[in-house]
Amino acid sequence: MSDQLIPALGDKTPLMVADTSCIDSLARKSEIGLVHTIPKGMKPGSDTANLSVLGYDPAIYYTGRSPLEALSIGVDMKGTDIAIRCNLVTLSEGGSYEDKTIIDHSSSEISTEDAAILMEAIREGLEDEHYKYYLGTSYRHLTIWEDGEVTSLKEPHDILGNVIGDYLPKDEALKRMMIKSFDILNEHPINIKRQEKGLNKANSIWFWGAGTKPALSSFEAKNNKKGAMISAVDLLKGIAVGAGMKVIKVPGANGTLHTNYEGKAEAALEVLLKQDYDFVYIHVEAPDEMGHQGSIENKIKAIHYLDQRVIKPVVEGMEASGEDYRMLIMPDHPTPIHLRTHTDDPVPYLLYDSRVNKKNNYLYNEIDAMYSGNVILKGYTIIDSLFDRKE
Question: How many angstroms separate the Cα of 111 from the Cα of each of 103, 118, 259, 375?
């Protein structure tokens, strides 16, 4: 949800403009600051950033995004396998494949139900002994390349609006499968129906994020805390699986603006207060998705929903329980509206302790966080602050 100053908002960020009355009330009693979640020299992605927030130094633990998603999907990778993210994207329809333009990295946030049908068509048309296709969530799916190699592949959300020819894989087999996928998908009945509804066709696969089998250490052994993960995104669930955390599935949680916010809050309170867990990580994808879509209005709305439909009920539930607690509120990385992709800028954090009243004058946003003077340079150490321990 972190962003940059937007002229259309009077040189404010979406976080500064959004109605965040619950977060504002916490901010006055909390530590506010900036944290660098992306290690120097690494790409700003949800993979590296969320590893940092969970206390795993990406420079040590990161082996690629897709292998983490493979853990979530339940794919048992061999040491020689390469996992590759397989997005369902929207390409323009005229001209040769190389001359097409990428219009939408999420195919109008395609439902998993529609995606399942399209991915089955891909499986029937492209799968062989070397390449296996697995269904994920919404537009996010997985390909396993047996005895493959980690190859450079371009993220689709980084090239929205561009002609794709210069960004296609150098590996000829991967490139051929992408070209063939357009022939399989563009006139598929599901896509014709989607087009009639005014939705973008999911008319091509797009490979990116190749990596090798991950090896995360146990979250509980590392922190002496029982942890749980609540997210609709396979990447986050995969990190949790790799770390031995409990993965909680919330009905209706889909990674979009219209996810089940209340269900996530209820699930968090359930595991914290009734199932003897020490820590729960609630991940909400909507602000990031709205940043990729370049929608100022919906990004503001997503932040408001996070405040009122997730954070507020969790705070009220914890207060009603009478238990002491600490809460960390932060994005994993910025997704500025005008760029429609990630940056490695530091993000604002809010650290609240129910036992302490800080009585500061800062609100929770990018500018106040900067003025606070609090800066955490190593993002993977912020969890030490949450757990109230010295590095």
Answer: 18, 11, 12, 39
